[in-house]
Amino acid sequence: METIKIAAIQMDICHCNKQKNIEKALRFSEEAVSKGADIIILPEVFSTGFCYEDLEKAAESSPYPTIEELAVFSKKNKCTMIGSIIEKHGFENRETYTNLGFCLEDGELVGTYTKTHPFGKEKGYFASGDTIEPIHLKERDLTIGLQICYEIRFPEIARKLCLSGADILITIAEFPNPREHQWRPLATARAIENQIFHIACNCSGSDPNSTFFGGTMIIDPLGNVIADTKDGECVIIEEIDTSIMRTTRETIPIFDDRRPELY
Q1: Alpha helices (runs of H) in 78-167, residue ranges in sequence order
Q2: Distance between CA atoms of 134 and 137, rounded to whole angstroms?
Q3: What highest taxon heads this organism's lineage (predicted)?
């Protein structure tokens, strides 16, 4: 598939209020599909925020009730949904928590990604993932490179995803104030250096630990910001043509000209 309509949902996440956040996400998703969206992107840990004070209640184990709720919507509307939740699983007689990225396609969980680089306070609560691989959408014949928040600062992650065949790069985030002046160039740089569409989906509002600036963007392989928003809840939708990635790479062949033996 070369032309696809993508929606990024910029939510004000209600801290530790799972049901309210799920209802809000589904309401915005209804708006997105009514406008023809094929892929819907939600912010990092959209259903709870970083609910450190009640991780046991916020976290979920397989089969993940929150993902199951979204799967019903995804199947009914024949759409793809991407986001992350707090995951828990038992390990050596204690609970271990991770930040689990997920990708649903037409109701089926087609892939997950565990955040490999927790940031700051997260390190005290979350285990790190140890695999960075893109997720393939079977029905749409499209490959998604998913990274989470802090990982936008690591060009190696985006590059590995792109070298592994990603057609679209997606960053889901809770990127806080006062770092908007960092978020925007980082998001643009990841698109330019990999010659790929980059959807950078942030949240808005505040929680007990941070305030957020929004700044959700869709950026093309040349670094043009083709959809953008400031603060506040909203849905941005853009139809993209992934063949632009191919023509950009033919014109400026950075992948062919790489010299990995030197670096």
Answers
A1: 155-163
A2: 10
A3: Archaea
* Residue among 163, 161, 143, 194 nearest 39 (CA): 143
41: number of Cβ within 10 Å: 30
Two tokens, residue 115: 């955040």
User: Could you tell me the CA-to-CA distances from 5 to 14, 63, 134, 198, 237 in Å, in that order?
Assistant: 27, 28, 19, 13, 7
- Strand 39-41 with 80-91, pairing: parallel
Separation between Cα atoms, residue 186 and residue 147, nearest integer Å = 13
Q: What's the pLDDT score for residue 204?
A: 98
Phi-psi region of 161 (alpha: psi -120 to 50; beta: other; left: phi over 0): alpha
For 120-163, how does the pLDDT look when each residue is reduced to its tens digit (9 = 90+)? 999 999 999 999 999 999 999 999 999 999 999 999 999 999 99
Listed in sequence order, the residues at least 6 apart from 5 whose beta carbon sits closer than 8 Å to its beta carbon are 35, 36, 37, 38, 39, 237, 238, 239, 240
Rounded to an integer, the average pLDDT of 227-238 is 96
d(CA 258, CA 2): 26
Return the CATH class of domain 3-255: alpha beta
pLDDT of residue 63: 94
Query: Residue 2: is its pLDDT beyond 90?
Result: no
CA torsion angle for 174, 177, 182, 183 (degrees, to 10)?
30
User: What tens digit of pLDDT does each residue of 88-118 get?
Assistant: 987 656 789 999 999 999 999 999 999 999 9
Segment 29-53, tens digit of pLDDT: 999 999 999 999 999 999 999 999 9
Residues taking part in catalysis: 44, 115, 149
C-alpha to C-alpha distance for 251 and 154, rounded to whole angstroms: 26
